[in-house]
Design brief:
This protein has 2 domains: 2-59, Nucleic acid-binding proteins (OB fold (Dihydrolipoamide Acetyltransferase, E2P)), CATH 2.40.50; 67-93, no CATH class. Helix content is 18%, strand content 35%. It has one helix at residues 69-85, and strands spanning 2-9, 14-19, 24-28, 44-50, 53-59. It has a 5-stranded antiparallel β-sheet with strand order 3-2-1-4-5, with no helix packed on it. A hairpin with a 4-residue loop joins strand 1 (2-9) and strand 2 (14-19).
Length: 93
């Protein structure tokens, strides 16, 4: 099954995955088959479900699903520039 890591607490080595079926699956770090460092909020994974527990977890991409830092920074500067030019007001008129 495919899913996205919702959270992972490195101190307790536990977390949860949102499956594409809409269910939430709990997991332990020992269930991660490889590259534990790639596991974090937003990481896409493949896993086997046993009830509501995720087993045999394998990261499917290195980048988390969230935006990287550079696009967010560029979007922030763009938004500030629009406010400075007064171009944001047309949305509320």
């Amino acid at each position: 099954m495919q899913g996205t890591v919702l959270n992972f607490d490195r101190s307790t080595e536990t977390g949860s995955i949102g499956g594409i079926d809409g269910m939430r699956y709990a997991f332990k770090a020992s269930s991660v088959q490889r590259d534990l460092q790639a596991i974090g909020s937003g990481a896409r994974v493949s896993f086997a479900a046993a009830g509501l527990e995720a087993l045999a977890i394998i990261p499917t991409d290195r980048e988390p699903a969230s935006m990287s830092r550079k696009p967010r920074l560029a979007a922030s500067f763009f938004a500030i520039a629009l406010v400075g030019l007064g171009l944001h007001g047309f949305y509320f008129a």
